[in-house]
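Ticket reopened. Same input as before:
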Amino acid sequence: MHEIKPRTPAQILLIGVVVLYAAVLLVAPLVAVFQGTFADGVAPVLKAFTDPDVISALKLTASLVIAATVINTLAGVALAWVLVRHEFPGKHLFDAMVDLPFVVSPVIVGYVIIVLFGREGWLGGIPFKIAFSWLGMLLVTVFVSLPFVTREVMPVLAAMTPEQEEAAYTLGASHLLTFRRVILPSIWRGILYGIILTMARALGEFGAVAVAGGGIRGVTETSTLFIFRALHDRNYVGAYSLALLLGVLSVIILLLMNTLRTPTTRKT
Amino acid sequence: MAELAFNDSVRPVARPQVPFGAWGLRVAALTYLVALVAVPIIVIVIAGFREGLGVFWASVTRPAALSALWLTIWTAGLMTLFNIVMGTMTAYVLVSYKFPGKRILDAMIDLPFAIPTLVTGVMLVLLYGPQTAIGELFESRFGSRLLFAPPGIILALLLICYPFVIRAVQPVLAQLDVSQQEAASTIGASQWTIFRRVILPAIRPAILTGGLLSFARALGEFGSIVIVSGNIPMQTQTAAVYIYGQVEAGNPAAASGVSVVLLAIALLVTLMVDLIQQRRRQHA
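Engineering reply: fixed in the latest deploy. New output:
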């Protein structure tokens, strides 16, 4: 379809409704959190970021995001490769499994950690701590952000023609060299887009880390968990300040998404 | 002759063999997938039925559990219907018309995917909470609160699921062949008739996919709901919030049953999406 300039009043009305809906749903809440945070000026907001609980929450969130992104990037590319290039029985089933983290409630995922590794957990006897600790939170964060790199890389790999790879092998290149010099340059954009989505998802996770980590102040309290507790403690400046910071980060993520998104890599 | 002989000797290129290479990669990648995705789901199913079918049934049919499940399903369903209408309209406008600010609108659509859902909840409370002008107006007009009530849940779900229908329909609309529409237009069909009779049948699978995905996403939503719903048992407590409450209260049996039901619905919806996409691929 090609774009036209709206002519009739009905067309202009239609555009108006769509734009107004987006403004009410997306823009107004962003403005509200900005206003709410700076209601008493800038000083209390700056002070909120010196709170040791805020600093430890931000550090914990950063460590989880980085670890989950590294794991899901390496494993995600490998998984995309296997699902596109290998043939094996049950492939369709494995392929369908990749999307499950999109629809499983994060609370349920956190609960699995408690069932397995909690105080009365099935595997409670193992010598290291998983439930209510960093490791358990990492596991659930990896789960919720698992599909992105795989799903972004798979279509790009599938669309690649084998000629260049075969040329590389003919010239005696090893698997690793071929991957680095031929395949990686074609799929890096997909990987990068997947990484951004992975980071966004890991950064904002709340339900899964709340249950798996238990939200112990200063220990397993991530940024989102801090906001949740601060709201209950009526520490509104603290809650809104950190919410605004996460909101600003997600707008930056959105901008990155738009720079990387080209018509060819856009998936449905 | 020499050239011919050379050509004869060329065989399809064999890739260099790495011992355990392909197998090692496959085993590693699939282990990662199974350990992280399949195992948790099996664990939940076992946890749900471990004490027997009777206990499972009792935990699911508790009034608080039933009401949480029902609230989750009807708010998600209503949101999906509204999202389908607005999402299709937005995708249509984005593909069909030129207007100022269009690129900004297109760029903003994925914002709900980037924003933490808990932050979404905080933003909605700041904008529509009972202490705000809009919240007060709504309460005085309709006699019930906007937030900390079902309308607030639907509002939060609408925001979180905003991109699904748009992003499913937009690429399909953009690739539609215009000749049919032009033919309809030459025989005097109105724009509405063209949309209903020519465009809609072509984009129906995409609309359905987007709608189902947003429904599945909404079923499990927690971060924003826990902030905007008020969390009143039997009234504004959704299934995810109910599970959270039961786990925190150390009542795992109650949490397991509802988890299994929620998971089963989500899997069913995913299966439906898969079927629609398979059918679409076969037709293509």
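Chain B touches chain A through 97 residues (CB under 8 Å). Chain B has one domain: 51-283. Please confirm and we'll close it.
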